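Entry 14. Structure prediction run on the chain below.
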Amino acid sequence: MSLKDLLPEGTFEELEESVHDHVRGPEKSVGGIQVRCPHCGMMHVYSTSDPFRPFCSERCKLLDLGAWASEEMKIEGPSLLEDDDAEYASDAVFSAKEIRSQH
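Output returned:
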């Protein structure tokens, strides 16, 4: 038995339409699928031939990359130094620095 069977007749369809009215996803247009740029929010046509997709421009793509590089944006998680293998990670970092300083 499904939820549709448990609700009064027509209620499931009404709820389904209401949900679709409020869910925001890609919008189809004459030129293709319109999506929001993850950086600035501007709507633009998503195309596999666009070298900046999913961004609207090279500027937005580079600004987003810069935010990740400067750690303004990051994925939360445990620190590498709190890991069980932290001693090995720090040894590898120091070894890499020593190798660079020898050259």
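Helices lie at 3-6, 11-22, 58-69, 86-102.
Filed with the rest of this week's runs.
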